[in-house]
Amino acid sequence: MDKKNLRKFDIRIQSLSNNKHNFSFEFSQKLFDNYSKELDFFDSKGNCEIELIKSEMILDFTFMIDGEVYLKCDRTLKKFKYKLNTSKKILFKFGDKDEEISDEMMVINRNKSIINVSKLIYEFFLLNIPVKRLHPSLKNEDNIDNFVYKTNKTNKVDPRLDLLNNLK
Fold first, then answer.
1. What is the pTM of this model?
2. Is 148 left (phi over 0), alpha (psi -120 to 50) or beta?
3. Which of the pair, 56 or 154, is modelled with greater confidence?
4. Cα distance from N-terminal residue to C-terminal residue, the chain
5. pLDDT per residue over 77-114, tens digit each?
6. Which of 50, 121, 134, 135 could bridge across to 23 with cysteines, CB 3.0–4.6 Å?
7. Phi, psi (5° rounding) for residue 110?
């Protein structure tokens, strides 16, 4: 994804009135590949709804991300679809220079007219992908019966040994 495609994630904040505004952005794997080539998930897609409340000194962003991604199980190496639904809030305070105060608050220059939210969508999406990735068929992770392979082979008993079973 080049810079031209990243511009579709721009929000022009200077032209907005001091009020509540809603934005919607669709994203795909191209967005994630733009920031990192070494990702261990694929075919991601989703939608990000942003609610922006603008006031004189603060921009209050609420990100509501709904998406899906294909992951590879850590145990069985099977692919599975993981659905993601998250909400995250971040505040932008107007100041003299750009800096990050905390995970939930950033200072931006008062003269800044555009905020690109692509990096924030990327980070919020990544933070909600589980570290331990288990296929849904492994409901109980300690259950060995569901582990990797199952066989349908039945053990046939030699009919001559049936006489020995009668001795029990």
1. 0.76
2. left
3. 56
4. 73
5. 889 999 999 999 999 998 888 888 888 999 998 888 89
6. 50
7. -60, -25
